[in-house]
Design brief:
Layout: H1 2-7, E1 12-15, H2 20-28, E2 32-35, E3 39-40, H3 46-56, E4 60-61, H4 68-86
Parallel strand pairs: 1-2, 3-4
């Protein structure tokens, strides 16, 4: 967050879980947080993701691409942020 502030960038965190106070800190810094239902592994690690999911019963996946709904959530949040900055 300090690096983003120094570079005058809006922070973006994409995470499986994050404490609410961290989320609030990111919002106060002008950034966005996208909480995912699954922990995502790189495509080349699909076999490992399957083992973790099957053996540990954790919500993990290694998709070839993000679902359109996930991308739309991020885009909607970005548009809301831009609209809020104009007022």
């Amino acid at each position: 967050m300090q690096m983003c502030q120094e570079l005058r960038l809006a922070p973006l965190f994409i995470a499986r879980m994050m404490p609410k106070n961290y989320i609030n800190d990111v919002f106060r810094a002008g950034g966005l947080v996208l909480i995912m239902g699954y922990q995502l592994y790189p495509l080349g690690f699909a076999a490992l993701a399957r083992q973790v999911r099957d053996r540990l019963q954790l919500p993990v996946d290694a998709p070839a691409r993000l679902q359109q709904g996930t991308l739309q959530r991020l885009l909607n949040a970005h548009h809301r942020k831009l609209a809020g900055n104009r007022s």
